[in-house]
Amino acid sequence: MFDNLSDKLDKALHVLKGHGSITEVNVAETLKEVRRALIDADVNFKIAKDFTNRVKDKALGENVLTTLQPGQLMVKIVKDELTELMGGDASGINLSGNPSVILMSGLQGSGKTTFSGKLANFLKTKKTKKPLLVACDVYRPAAIDQLHVVGDAIKVDVFSDRDNQDPVAIAEAGVAFAKANGHNVVIVDTAGRLAVDTEMMDEIANIHKAIQPQETLFVVDSMTGQDAVNTAKAFNDILNFDGVILTKLDGDTRGGAAISIKSVVDKPIKFIGTGEKMEAIDVFYPSRMADRILGMGDVVSLVERAQEQFDEEEARKLQKKIAKNQFGFDDFLKQIQQVKKMGNMKDLMGMIPGAGKMLKGVDIDDDAFKHIEAIIHSMTPDERTNPSVINSSRKKRIGKGSGTSVQQVNQLLKQFNQMSKMMKMMQGGGGRKMMQAMSRMQK
Q: ∠ CA 240-243-247 to the nearest 5 degrees?
């Protein structure tokens, strides 16, 4: 996410991070490079120029040149301005109304149907709502089938009428169905076109008028860059939508849409899509995104994701097992499953400060744990509970059964033993013991 932009901004700000003297001349030169980085990321030239002018005014106004840490202060100013440019504060979704009606709009291929499912899943699991998906795309082949497949995957009801070719009537019938069947949120998936046209705009305007949604959201493919911003403006002129959803932020995106869309349409980005799975949806926090763009990571989001998967009862059981030295591979497997639920590995690593630079150019596969899981599944129940019984002949059998080598089995056993010792040290006064162990290792 924004790797190229992050790299260019880091290089632009490098001279002001304590590497050399700070002068008014190199501040101006740095901001010129910042502006170039933003334009390369497909940010509109005027927006990029206004942004760097504001940064320059603030920097000189706060006497960056004479502070003890001018580089850090400059980075903070850039971060604050980036946050403001992307909307300032996170914007919530309006769930008033009974039912709350959410109208999804956007071009064909923007990811509307998939994101309708993600949003339904988010509202069901995080907001304890009972959503209904309504299929109003009567033009695209298999669009209705796609929404039904998505609904089945997340166990959410889908309303459709294959015999009706009137999207307005289908939308109204869907809202009526929701009221009659206890659904408190209705998400209406509408048709898109390959380009903005009058017929499309009239149709969605008529749906909007008929169902009076609490929220009208514009879904845009972030990989289309400045085109996404222009399309958003065209839709906003007709619909006056409430917020933007950026999809495919996990792709090779330049980031221009995320950075400049708010200043063009004056509507907040409410959600982002960060992967293919139904759980790959995040509330958009401008401040956290600015941190990530500047290579500072996003520890808050990482902790939040971890807490969502955290089970206190399971943690207590695990603690007892560690204390009794009974931590086995079945327990290790459970920990892996919890990490996998947090999201794709590349996205998670990007939330760790500094990890982006270290992993630049490294392809982190979502199946990073695949061979580990295969090795563990190839063990007998006794081997998983008592790893110490695994001898050389067992290692050969495990390697063969998992499609891995004996070396990989040995590596996993070594890592498992090291982790078990570390976890044991963390039990009661563990910090002191761990420091002592680490100092002995260094001697």
A: 125
Q: What is the DSSP letter of 410?
A: H
Q: Where are the alpha helices (DSSP H) in 310-369?
A: 312-323, 329-341, 345-350, 355-358
Closest CA to 232 of 71, 222, 5: 222
Q: Where are the domains of the chain?
A: 3-85, 100-296, 303-442
- Other CB atoms within a 10 A radius of the CB of residue 435 amount to 11
Q: How far apart (Å, rounded) are the C-alpha atoms in residues 441 and 443?
A: 6
For residue 300, which amino acid is it?
A: V
Instruction: Report DSSP letters for 94-112, one per residue.
Output: ---SSSEEEEEE--TTSSH
- Distance, in Å, from the CA atom of 221 to the CA atom of 245, rounded to the nearest integer, reads 9
| Equal CATH topology for 3-85 and 303-442 | no
Structural contact between residues 104 and 185, judged by C-beta atoms closer than 8 angstroms: no
pLDDT at residue 203 is higher than 90: no
Contacts of residue 252, defined as CB under 8 A and 6 or more positions apart, other chains included, come to 223
Residue 18 has pLDDT above 60, yes or no: no
- Give buried/exposed letters for 97-126 (b at 16+ CB in 10 A, else e): eebbbbbbbbbbebbbbbbbbbbbbbbbee
Q: Name the CATH superfamily, with its identifier, for domain 303-442.
A: Signal recognition particle, SRP54 subunit, M-domain (1.10.260.30)
HEC profile of 139-151 = CCCCHHHHHHHHH
36 SS3 class: helix
Mean model confidence pLDDT for the chain: 77
Name the one residue in this structure whose structure tokens are 């401040």. Answer: 287
Amino acid, single-letter form, for residue 442: Q
Whether residue 36 has pLDDT greater than 90: no
What CATH topology corresponds to 3-85? Answer: Four Helix Bundle (Hemerythrin (Met), subunit A) (1.20.120)
* Fold of the domain built from segment(s) 100-296: Rossmann fold (3.40.50)
